């Protein structure tokens, strides 16, 4: 991770939009396959095949040794769940799917949380609030604002509705690296954060728990779960800062 925030040119943003569109299309394709009885490994294989068919390389596979193309996080799992033939979806589950690709030297990254069949009111509301908090964050993506305006927008929206935001994992800059500065927390940190400049590309990703904000990593070294076993949801877009406001590169989800 380099220390400076790397600004992207218009031509770089055009490539990053292509990369992110492959991500968005892959996630849309997966929506059609979410059903009781499907395994998360099947989803992983579908995603990898689809993305490679578009000449993109799954970004997470092999990243620090991560074994899957998708991060698939079920119910009380927050992020970084490992695809498995042993994880079989069932009616009432919620599944967070995070996907990234590398395409023409640039990364795309986005996430959604989906219901499996009919889910209860609490799960449905959690998905709605988490998704809405992402759009509240995106509204803050304008020149002159700071990263902290994004953080505050998520935190306020979520906490006013009785949910909590995860602290240990944060959004990030993205470009020729999957993770670049700046960090984009989903809660307000003390001190001054960077000002937004045209050409920054931000992967904004609220992770919202129905219960407390505390999380832990399971023994597999990857899967993050809520300590109190409450449900968790995750939505992410890669968004460019432009003179005309936010440009959601992973649009269409
Ligand atoms: Mg991300």
Protein model, in words:
The protein has 253 residues and is of the alpha+beta class. The protein is built from 4 helices and 15 strands. It has helices at 10-31, 40-53, 121-139, 147-159; strands at 57-58, 70-74, 77-79, 94-103, 106-115, 164-165, 171-173, 180-184, 201-204, 207-209, 215-217, 224-226, 232-234, 237-242, 245-248. The strands form 4 sheets. A 5-stranded antiparallel sheet has the order 8-7-9-14-15. Strands 1, 2, 4 and 5 form a 4-stranded antiparallel sheet that branches. A 3-stranded antiparallel sheet has the order 3-12-11, with no helix packed on it. A hairpin with a 6-residue loop joins strand 11 and strand 12. Helix 1 (10-31) runs antiparallel to helix 2 (40-53) and helix 3 packs antiparallel against helix 4. It is globular. The protein starts with 9 loop residues before the first helix and ends in a 5-residue tail after the last strand. The mean pLDDT is 97. The structure holds magnesium ion. Magnesium ion binds next to loops.
Overview in brief:
The chain contains four helices and 15 strands. It is an alpha+beta fold and 253 residues long.
SSE inventory with pairings:
Blueprint: H1 10-31, H2 40-53, E1 57-58, E2 70-74, E3 77-79, E4 94-103, E5 106-115, H3 121-139, H4 147-159, E6 164-165, E7 171-173, E8 180-184, E9 201-204, E10 207-209, E11 215-217, E12 224-226, E13 232-234, E14 237-242, E15 245-248
Antiparallel strand pairs: 1-4, 2-4, 3-12, 4-5, 6-10, 7-8, 7-9, 9-14, 10-13, 11-12, 14-15
Helix pairs in contact: 1-2, 3-4
Magnesium ion (MG) binds next to loops.
């Amino acid at each position: 991770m380099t220390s400076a925030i790397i600004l992207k040119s218009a031509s770089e943003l055009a490539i990053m939009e292509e990369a992110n569109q492959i991500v968005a299309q892959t996630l849309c394709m997966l929506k059609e396959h979410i059903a009781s009885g499907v395994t998360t490994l099947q989803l992983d294989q579908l995603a990898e095949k689809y993305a490679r068919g578009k000449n993109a390389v799954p970004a997470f596979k092999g990243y620090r040794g991560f074994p899957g193309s998708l991060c698939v996080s079920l119910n009380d799992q927050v992020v970084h769940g490992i695809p498995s033939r042993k994880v079989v979806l069932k009616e009432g589950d919620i599944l967070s799917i995070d996907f990234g690709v590398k395409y023409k030297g640039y990364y795309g990254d986005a996430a959604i949380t989906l219901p499996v069949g009919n889910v209860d009111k609490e799960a449905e509301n959690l998905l709605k609030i988490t998704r809405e908090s992402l759009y509240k964050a995106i509204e803050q993506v304008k020149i002159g604002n700071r990263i902290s305006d994004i953080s505050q927008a998520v935190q306020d929206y979520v906490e006013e509705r009785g949910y909590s935001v995860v602290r240990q994992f944060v959004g990030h800059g993205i470009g020729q690296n999957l993770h670049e500065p700046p960090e984009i927390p989903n809660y307000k940190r003390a001190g001054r954060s960077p000002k937004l400049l045209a050409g920054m590309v931000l992967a904004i990703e609220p992770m919202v728990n129905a219960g407390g904000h505390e999380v832990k990593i399971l023994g597999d070294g990857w899967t993050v779960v809520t300590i109190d076993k409450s449900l968790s949801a995750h939505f992410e877009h890669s968004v460019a800062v432009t003179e005309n406001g936010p440009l959601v590169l992973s649009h269409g989800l």
